[in-house]
Amino acid sequence: MIGGIALGLAGCGTVRVPAGPEAGDPTCAGVVLGAPDELLGLPRAETSSQGTIAWGSGEDTIVLRCGVTPPGPTTDLCTRLEDSSGVQVDWIVREQDDLVFYTTYGRSPAIDISVPRAVAPDQPSAAALDLGQLVTTNVDATDHCVGAEDVS
Fold first, then answer.
1. How many CA atoms lie within 13 A of 30 on its CB side?
2. Cys-Cys crosslink for 100: which of 33, 47, 117, 124, Cβ 3.0 to 4.6 Å?
3. pTM of structure
């Protein structure tokens, strides 16, 4: 549940993040091990749960959770982000308070990313774009976003 992501600090600056229900999937180990040491200029931080990664500190923390429940069909915004090297990932985008949430669509296990607006006020999608290669390297796409204009 997106609203259920509660960030906090445990001892020694560890970011407390709830694990996704499938965080133990071996695919998530590859995601965590392959994650960059820095994202949008923020250093990687230690997290409290398997299958999770964080960058930054306090309220300015970007969080990735691997092993979340893959979303089914939705009327929420689903968009394909393509980086400069042509890597494409479909994301469901939701906004809540001062956070923007990105959840992979058509991939299992699913990955979600929460990006505080304060970190990237003009382009919160930059975090999802920067993590596209990590996603595509570890989790194959089995489906894609489809809009009403795509259905005949």
1. 12
2. 124
3. 0.89
